[in-house]
Amino acid sequence: xxxxxxxxxxxxxxxxxxxxxxxxxxxxxxxxxxxxxxxxxxxxxxxxxxxxxxxxxxxxxxxxxxxxxxxxxxxxxxxxxxxxxxxxxxxxxxxxxxxxxxxxxxxxxxxxxxxxxxxxxxxxxxxxxxxxxxxxxxxxxxxxxxxxxxxxxxxxxxxxxxxxxxxxxxxxxxxxxxxxxxxxxxxxxxxxxxxxxxxxxxxxxxxxxxxxxxxxxxxxxxxxxxxxxxxxxxxxxxxxxxxxxxxxxxxxxxxxxxxxxxxxxxxxxxxxxxxxxxxxxxxxxxxxxxxxxxxxxxxxxxxxx
Length: 305
Prior knowledge:
Layout (H helix, E strand, L loop, with lengths): L10 E3 L14 E7 L2 E8 L4 E7 L7 H7 L4 E5 L16 H14 L5 E7 L1 H8 L7 E9 L7 H10 L2 H10 L1 H7 L10 H25 L4 H11 L8 E6 L7 H8 L4 E5 L6 H4 L1 H23 L1
Parallel strand pairs: 4-5, 4-6, 6-7, 7-8, 8-9
Antiparallel strand pairs: 1-2, 2-3, 3-5
């Protein structure tokens, strides 16, 4: 599974740290400078392009899914500023900073006719990035994510708690969030112990602080939510949509709202799935994306013909 394009001049190779061996991360990884930060971008596979966007932990969450999709797709995924292998300049750890990084990656790789696969805060971040270039997107896969300003009291209370300085420092001291996220409740349902340890190592204290900073900023990123909402209700309103949610993790009714915005959306619910459906059932999620994308290509050929 090799990249199908030459490395752009704006990117440079990234040396993997000792805690991330090739056996755990068999992907080409490059660095892109964005606003004095260095964003780690990984790629594998050939075919139509899928751009995976997640903000919060790091791109290890995509590993098992992209390994299943790489036979049919060019898969591109990256670490948001301050997470995983990405470095962050002061002030870059925000939804706005992550959105700028996403837009810079799309430009640097000259991505066109791609499908966006967004998870968690990657949704509003990616949609805001696409506000000035919606014509580049041919489809959207929304995976346990949203694209509007969080307004419900329950959601805002959760973000305020998780994003608080007290919770941040408690987590740095105890490693609670990385351990929970690496468990079967998070990404670890099908992971062996070394893979779980690799995920936790990729968070570390700086990445963990970044995680909580992003959660805190999710309460205040009104510019990002405004751009995301405008493009979803405008230029992207007719783009085909697939939603994939875990059966046990839609407490804020995101799937219902997606269906209201996109009545023709195809919706998949992963049985007994939690917040990371691509980790709970990677085979099911990969096949859902593959079959949906194939239908898009078939329908497009019919319409063009």
